[in-house]
Design goal:
alpha/beta; 36% helix
């Protein structure tokens, strides 16, 4: 049998996270998908497509493209002053109750033009791409009114069209209570469910629906109202749950078959068991834990014992996780939460793709999946988690095309 390729990458190393002497492999690509992968000596005969490109991997380590499954990349302004306040002893909840936190970003995002939001988010996203990200989820939630939520989601869609990365959008209208609805949370949730979400879904701007289930945000009953609307529209759900306290968010997520429950520092064994039964992925966000100087770790041992998949993400946002580095985030997951190197790599590939409901397309190097992968200058995959402040990324390939290539002088050609 002769295969037809549009591109062939050869002389690449691929193996377990702790295996320095990995076998050399080759990857054949056709129409943006992996058409063949295996030991290079077993490469079958192949035909060259009309735009065939032969690439030498030069012994680089290869992993699937990194999947960034929880971000708030589109926003106006920043919250550096709140960082100063937290250093002086103020808590995240204190700042939020005083009108800061999410609401300060809401004001800046409402005031920003669509073009300004795009340029700022594109700059942030390019940095993630340069560290191996080929797929990213982007949430709304800094508008809290119909026009601004739509503006944010349009920007996210444009990022996916104009940058070499696959973007999935999540509507997070139930992120915080806008100031004009102070004391009227149920009325705001009604607006989210009867107008905002249906209209945005009709415009094709929403891939999934999220909510912030917390004492300083929305109750279980209010989040369930959002989930019911999502279900009626045929949209999958996920949930910010058990970050600052335990009010039953992960149980709600499990009841509705959520793709993921995220944060989970205060999750209990009964919550973990429910997530396992529902197939809900636990998304760990160690950068937020670090920036908030939390001390309650997510129940990693319970996730392992119950077989709950653990994904990792930056949670990139202006207030509690101003982080753009997936590699640093993996290190934090290992250092702060006790994950192994293998768990960290799976958390940014296979399990992150599951948290987006797209494990069929992303997160693994398998025939038929998107030809998204990263070449690393590393002796073993463990180095991706080991180094701090330096990226060994040599090249990023997305849908078979080079999305990023590092220069020898440490710059970037994109």
């Amino acid at each position: 049998m002769t295969l037809r390729f549009d591109a062939l990458w050869r002389d690449l190393k691929h193996g377990d996270a702790g295996t320095p002497d990995a076998p050399r492999i080759a990857i054949g690509i056709a129409q943006g998908r992996i058409a063949w992968i295996g030991p290079e000596p077993q490469l079958p005969e192949y035909e060259r497509g009309p735009h065939f490109a032969l690439h030498e991997g030069a012994g680089a380590w290869i992993t699937p493209g990194l999947v960034e499954c929880h971000t708030h990349l589109v926003f106006g302004g920043n919250r550096a002053d709140e960082f100063r306040q937290r250093l002086a002893g103020a808590s995240y909840a204190d700042i939020a109750r005083a009108g800061g936190g999410i609401l300060s970003t809401v004001n800046a995002t409402r005031a920003a033009s669509e073009a300004a939001l795009f340029e700022a988010a594109a700059q942030r996203l390019r940095r993630m791409i340069a560290e191996g990200v080929t797929t990213v989820e982007i949430k709304s939630g800094y508008g809290l009114d119909a026009p601004t939520e739509a503006k944010m989601l349009r920007v996210a869609r444009r990022l996916g069209r104009e940058l070499p990365v696959t973007v999935y959008t999540t509507f997070l209208g139930a992120h915080a209570l806008p100031p004009e609805y102070r004391g009227r949370a149920n009325e705001y949730i009604e607006l989210v469910c009867t107008r905002m979400l249906p209209e945005l879904a009709q415009q094709g701007l929403v891939d999934a629906v999220d909510a912030f289930c917390e004492n300083i945000a929305f109750s279980v009953a209010q989040c369930e109202r959002v989930f019911q609307t999502a279900a009626a529209l045929g949209l999958p759900v996920k949930l910010h749950a058990e970050q600052l306290s335990n009010i039953g968010g992960s149980q709600l997520a499990a009841r509705y078959g959520a793709m993921s429950a995220d944060h989970l520092e205060h999750a209990l064994e009964v919550d973990v068991a429910a997530m396992r039964a529902a197939g809900t992925v636990a998304v760990l966000l160690p950068a937020a834990y670090y920036c908030l100087r939390e001390t309650q770790r997510p129940p990693i041992d319970l996730f392992r014992r119950h077989g709950v998949s653990m994904a990792i993400a930056t949670d990139c946002n202006p207030g509690t996780a101003p982080v753009l580095s997936p590699l640093l985030t993996m290190n934090m997951a290992c250092t702060l939460f006790g994950l192994t190197v293998a768990e960290a790599l799976q958390g940014y590939t296979t399990h992150a793709a599951r948290a987006l409901g797209r494990a069929d397309l992303h997160g693994a190097l398998e025939i038929g999946r998107a030809a998204d992968f990263v070449l690393w200058d590393a002796a073993s995959a463990a180095e991706l988690v080991y180094w701090l402040g330096a990226s060994p990324c040599r090249a990023v390939v997305r849908h078979g095309e080079v999305a990023y290539r590092a220069l020898q002088d440490g710059g970037a050609n994109r």
